[in-house]
Design a protein that fits this description.
heterodimer, A: 121 residues, alpha/beta, Rossmann fold, five-stranded parallel β-sheet, two-stranded antiparallel ribbon, 5 helices, 42% helix, 24% strand, globular, B: 510 residues, six-stranded mixed β-sheet, five-stranded antiparallel β-sheet, elongated
Chain lengths: 121, 510
């Protein structure tokens, strides 16, 4: 089963490699480099699943998740983060509390990524 | 006033003299002698016996007393002692019939101001003796007051003083000096002996050398040294000395003050320790922030390697050499991942201590408590195999087992059901499974169960934090947790933990 997947990440290497992996898995993929661009993209692209980074310049991930969920409640959101905390709270935990449906801790491997996508198909 | 007393009226500025003399002739002689005195005026109150004189002292003030040594109701030193007892601050002049030097010495030692022989022509002598006695007495009282003042000031400041005379070697010290050293005045009578007794051998020379400097005429620097107090406790002292010079300007002695600064130094040490801890915490905090930033970027960089290398490896017609190369790339990326986790773990302040432990032993030893903690409807079955050691925190992993079992028991509710606990080896690590025959969950619920505060139960039955805590602990242990369930077909949670070596690396341990 394939899905329409949107990637939001400010790191081009991450965007491109995730695109390659997901396209190799047969999915239809589009990517944005920032939260606000991702919001605009979601309106046209109509993804089933959005993979979004948490720590990004400008419109950061937690805010992006809140806005995406408000606008498209049906889209499944997977938060990704390469670590970092506010106080004693993990960003990924926070993202899930704010509406992300799953979380992936970077760096994940191909299997973990595809498994996370499969969970929502 | 008693009938025996005879008071001669006098102006108010007169010196008030109490005269106790049983010999009438002598009494009249003395009275006349004092009243005829040209440079002082006296107001004299006379008694022939001691008892009424003592009684009078209770109610009347006198400037001096002149007493005979033999009275009808008392004699000798006893008369003097009883007068002194009745009026301790009254200067006393004793009259005797004979010139007995020994007796004079005894009286003067006891505190009498003067001893005069009655038969000698008293002439100008007695009035002068009375005036001098009063003046001497006043000076003594003033000196005592100053000494008391100094002692009190030393006590308040916890400063002891001492003086050494170079020529005689005489050493004198204040009460507070003795108190600081916790020793009696007798023990403190010789300074070098005192230093030998109280200062540790290693510091003795340096303490005495400091005094030798004063002997040579140079101002000795302030000195800090350790000493043993009389009660055996080690204390720290500070000593400051000043050279005393004789009339020729040569150093004649030294005046020093000693202060016990133990408490001060201890407070300073504590303060320094706290400051050091704060600096250390700030350093760790800064390192943590830095490490967090670096880890974030490195994790991003590792994403392409870890996601794309497996795709490359699957490519058609890969040679052995190419496969080996890609495996090396994957292994290196995995090692880098662990290293970054290690850096992140270091930056997390509240890292829980973990040590090698066996999950099967933990579950076995928890069974009794688990069974006691759940409703009797649920039976606990076990399938526990010996598993390799993992790196874990006993308390936290017990909480994982407990929360999963409580969750299972609540899914079973008030119907008969079975909870199966399985512990088995998995990929060099260990796996724990908790399965129940309870109500099961739909997909929506399954997705949300690890969220904090998510619960399907009534508010009174749980906080909804149990499974999010489980998830947090498992993640901290580099483990994974998954759930499989269907409504009406029970639920199975699986928790797996990595092999000891991998977790150890991630935790920053060898």
């Amino acid at each position: 089963m394939t899905a329409r997947i949107e990637i939001i990440d400010d790191d081009p290497a991450v965007r491109e490699s995730l695109t390659l992996v997901l396209e190799a898995g047969g999915h239809h993929v589009c990517a944005a480099d920032a939260g606000d661009a991702g919001l605009v993209l979601a309106r046209d692209f109509r993804p089933d699943i959005i993979l979004t980074d948490i720590i990004m310049p400008g419109c950061e991930g937690i805010q992006t998740i809140l806005m995406l969920k408000a606008e498209h409640p049906q889209i499944r959101i997977i938060a990704m983060s390469g670590g970092g905390r506010t106080g004693n709270r993990d960003y990924l935990e926070l993202a899930q509390e704010m509406g992300a449906d799953a979380a992936l801790e970077k760096p994940f491997d191909e299997d973990a990524l595809l498994e996370a996508i499969r969970a929502f198909l | 006033m008693s009938a025996e007393a005879r008071r001669i009226p006098a102006p108010e500025d007169a010196i008030r003299v109490l005269l106790v003399e049983d010999n009438a002739t002598a009494r009249i002689l003395i009275e006349e002698l004092l009243q005829n005195c040209s440079d002082s005026r006296f107001a004299i109150t006379c008694f022939a016996r001691l008892a009424p004189a003592l009684h009078c002292l209770k109610t009347h003030a006198f400037d001096a007393a002149v007493i005979d040594m033999i009275l009808p109701d008392a004699a000798g030193l006893e008369i003097y002692s009883r007068i002194k007892k009745a009026a301790p601050s009254l200067p006393v002049i004793v009259l005797t019939g004979t010139s007995d030097t020994n007796r004079f010495d005894a009286l003067l030692k006891a505190g009498a101001q003067d001893c005069l022989v009655k038969l000698h022509p008293l002439g100008q002598l007695l009035p002068r003796a009375i005036r001098y006695a009063i003046e001497r007495h006043r000076i003594h009282a003033e000196m005592r007051a100053r000494e008391d003042h100094l002692a009190a000031a030393q006590r308040l400041a916890s400063i002891g003083s001492f003086e050494i005379d170079f020529a005689s070697g005489a050493f004198t010290c204040s009460q507070e000096f003795c108190k600081i050293h916790g020793l009696s005045a007798e023990v403190c009578a010789d300074y070098e002996q005192l230093i030998g007794l109280t200062v540790p051998a290693a510091e003795r020379g340096y303490v005495l050398d400091n005094l030798a400097i004063a002997r040579s005429g140079r101002a000795p620097p302030m000195l800090e040294y350790r000493f043993l107090r009389g009660d055996g406790k080690e204390r720290r002292a500070e000593r400051q000395c000043e050279i005393l010079f004789d009339e020729d300007g040569k150093p004649s002695g030294v005046l020093g003050v000693v202060r016990d600064i133990t408490i001060l130094r201890e407070a300073e040490a504590r303060q320094a320790e706290i400051a050091e801890q704060l600096r250390h915490a700030q350093k760790i905090d800064a390192l943590g922030t830095l490490a967090g930033g670096i880890a974030h970027d490195l994790n991003n960089m590792l994403v392409p390697i870890r996601t794309l290398a497996p795709i490359l490896r699957r490519g058609a017609n890969r040679s052995e050499q190419e496969l080996r190369s890609i495996d090396l790339i994957i292994a290196a990326a995995q090692r880098a991942t662990r290293l970054v986790r290690q850096i992140l773990a270091f930056s997390r302040k509240q890292a829980v201590e973990r040590q090698p432990m066996r999950l099967d032993l933990l579950v076995r030893s928890s069974l009794t408590m688990l069974r006691a903690g759940i409703a009797p409807f649920a039976r606990i079955d076990t399938d526990i195999s010996a598993v390799p050691e993992i790196l874990g925190n006993q308390g936290q992993l017990y909480q994982v087992v407990l929360n999963l079992v409580l969750n299972a028991a609540q899914a079973i509710g008030e119907r008969p059901g079975v909870i199966t606990l399985t512990v088995a080896p998995q990929q060099g690590g260990a796996r724990l499974a908790v399965a129940d025959t309870g109500s099961g969950m739909d997909e929506e619920t399954q997705r949300r169960i690890f969220e904090p505060f998510f619960t399907t139960r009534a508010a009174s039955e749980g906080t909804g934090l149990g499974l999010s805590v489980v998830k947090g602990i498992v993640t901290e242990h580099e483990g994974r947790i998954s759930v499989t369930s269907r409504p009406g077909a029970g639920t199975r949670f699986e928790v797996s933990f990595p092999p000891l070596g991998e977790a150890a690396l991630a935790d920053g341990q060898p």
